Amino acid sequence: MPFTQDIFYGVLAFFLLDMGMVAARRIKDMQKTGSFLIAFSIFMPVANAIIGIILAKLIGMSEGNALLFAVLCASASYIAVPAAMRMTVPEANPSLYVSMALALTFPFNIIIGIPLYFNIIKAIGV
Question: Which pTM does this prediction carry?
Fold first, then answer.
């Protein structure tokens, strides 16, 4: 148990701290591509959620399951993708992909996305 559950939270905290520090060191790079990244991190989740809602309707999911599926389709993998990007593409700029996932897409999905996706689901009658 200490090696599978208890230690996980400490390692996760250090990982997130490290990712934040790496992104903070290069945050000025966000100014170069800021407007495109902001638009991408807002419109891409909505497009993915709509695709997810259509698929949920086609396979006959209930409203609740369709909403969960849409949220999963719309979300960036807030922990796994930054780690995968850092390991597989080390030259990628972490201030861009971490900022997009955690500072833009996540709050958008929580505040606007979930109610929007639910209203779309109700409107098309999933």
Answer: 0.74
